[in-house]
Amino acid sequence: xxxxxxxxxxxxxxxxxxxxxxxxxxxxxxxxxxxxxxxxxxxxxxxxxxxxxxxxxxxxxxxxxxxxxxxxxxxxxxxxxxxxxxxxxxxxxxxxxxxxxxxxxxxxxxxxxxxxxxxxxxxxxxxxxxxxxxxxxxxxxxxxxxxxxxxxxxxxxxxxxxxxxxxxxxxxxxxxxxxxxxxxxxxxxxxxxxxxxxxxxxxxxxxx
Length: 208
Ligand code: C5P
What we know:
Layout: E1 5-9, H1 16-27, E2 31-33, H2 35-47, H3 55-63, H4 78-87, H5 91-106, E3 110-114, H6 117-121, E4 127-132, H7 135-148, H8 155-171, E5 184-187, H9 193-207
Parallel strand pairs: 1-3, 1-4, 2-3, 4-5
This protein binds cytidine-5'-monophosphate.
Cytidine-5'-monophosphate binds near residues 12, 35, 114, 115 and 169.
C-alpha cells in the first residue's frame, strides 16, 4: 500500500493545526505544520533588516532556511503573521520550500497542514480536507489563543489583521488559498474540536 498523505488546508485559525495534529497521532503518521516554513522564512527576512514583501530578500531567506529556524519562539504574533504571508506570495520562496515538504511525506506518509497542500504540494493526496469557519469565529478563536499566551489584543484588530492576511493568501497568483476540487470542506463554525476530529477521521477511514 502507498504511504497515506492527508492534506489539511484552510484559512487562518480554522482549527487546521489542532485537527492535523490529532489525526497524525491517531493514524500513526508524521505531522508537518507547513506554515512554520513560511513563518521562519519571514523571520529571517526581518532579522536581515529587509522587507518580507521584497521578492529577492524573501527568496534568499527561503533558500538559507535551516530546520532549527522552525523551533524559534518568535514565529507567532502579528509581525510574524504578516511577514509569513508576505514571503508566501513569492513564487521563488514556494519553489524553495516544495522539495522539503514532498520529501517529508513521501516515505512514511504524513498529515500536513497549510494552504496549498491539496492543490500543489500533494495534488494526489489520499485525503484532502479544507477546514474553514466564519471570519468572526476564527477571529474569536485566535483572540482567545493569543490571550491565553499572554499576548492580549483588541479583538477587532485581530479580526482586521486576519482578514487582510486571508485576502492576501487568497488573491496571490502563486498557490492561492482555495479548496482542491476533490477536497472535503469542513465548516467548523458550530463544531468543537472533538466533533471536527470525529468527522475528519470518518472521512479518512472511508477514503482508505
Ligand atoms: O498556517 P499559518 O497561519 O501558520 O501560515 C502562515 C502563513 O504562511 C499563511 O498566512 C500563508 O501566507 C503561508 N502559508 C502558505 N502555504 C502553506 C502554509 C502557510 O502560503 N502551505
